[in-house]
Amino acid sequence: MQSNPAVEAHAAPDWPAIVAIVLGVTAFSVAQGVTYPLVSLVLAARGVSSTMIGVNAVGFALGLAAATLMLGRLTQRFRANHLIIAGLVGCSLCLAAFAVFSSTLVWFVARFLLGFCASLIFMLSEAWLNVACPDRLRGRVSGFYGASICAGFAAGPLAIPLFGTADGFGFALTAVYLALVAFATATLMYSTRTTPEPTSTRDIFRFFRQAPMLIAMVFAFGFADIAAISAMPVYFVRTGHTEAFAAISVTVLALPTAVAQPFIGYALDRLPRHRVAVGTAAVAALSYLAIPFLDAPALILVAFAMLGAATFSLYTCALTMLGERFRGGMLVAGSAAYALIYAIGSGAGSSLTGAIMEIGGPDAGPLSVGAALAVFTAAFLLARRR
Q1: Which long-range contacts (CB under 8 A, 24 or more apart) does 350-359 make?
Q2: For the domain 201-385, what is the CATH code?
């Protein structure tokens, strides 16, 4: 369903809903930022094999997939804001299970449920954000939303050096934090006046047909984002940089990305949104392509920071354009489609980039991702002209 800019021009934002959404999604990203490294470190300290650690991590991905497929049925039976609160409470209970139990099987089930609950929060929050926000503010609110996600992912792993991996204290503290956020979110919802509409699994797949370029944008984001996080640190080590440099590069990737999103959001509200999307894709492509030709570590980190900010900006653009174009149940369907295609893109980004580096050498990694982003940029420009 198309939006009506004339009607929306003077619409008031639903600020209690926007605050609740940002609180919830930040909590989701903190929980995921804690869980990914902390679970692996604890299992490794217990002597669990790398293979079993990998199998355990699959539980989270399976939970994400299950939530996507069940989203239509759930939204038809329950209100979306109630599902978000249930997701926050579920995440808190899963983290508490990590703190209380030591069974690998229990942890697998907990990671499945954590992925399920976190996915509900993520998908419904995106849809609700677009419902609660008028189009004149959509870019700026989406930019702040994206910055909150980045900040949460960056803050989550800090629980490890602060509280260690023993005794489950990091899990327990994060569980308490999520429970408090769930209470705050429930309190704010008494003042909200909007809520996402129900959707269906059929709508999710219909969205793929109706918005192929938005789907392509999210795929490109997932592909390039995970390539930067998982493959580029390996690239740096293989090209003669230290492990400390590779670790610093991840921090350099995350912080400017969070800072840049509100500025991208402002640009989305002031400039033609497809031009902002094309510009961010072009900057990401050029940054990837430039890295193999840079020698100075400072210049490499600058290019890497630009790469991270531009890559995540693709998602901020896609989220803003989703709310600009669609209404009703298609908003929730679009958010679910985004989650699904991001999972596919990130899986392709980590596996293909690693394989390309093995076959063609380290430089083939960033060059191939840069070339893929350049092709996407050209395709997006061609599609707009048509």
Answers
A1: 350/226, 350/227, 350/230, 350/231, 352/223, 353/227, 353/230, 353/231, 354/230, 354/231, 354/234, 357/231, 357/234, 357/235, 357/238
A2: 1.20.1250.20
- Check residues 252 and 53 and name the one with the higher pLDDT: 252
For the entire predicted model, the pTM comes to 0.84
- Cβ-contact 377, 285 below 8 angstroms: yes
Place of tokens 């609180």: 23
User: Pick from 264, 253, 384: which is nearest to 317 by CA?
Assistant: 264
Cα distances from 191 to residues 33, 82, 122, 179, 194, in angstroms, run 30, 14, 21, 20, 10
Residue 166: CB atoms within 10 A of its CB come to 9
Q: Which CATH number is 5-191 given?
A: 1.20.1250.20
What residues does CATH 1.20.1250.20 cover in the chain?
5-191, 201-385
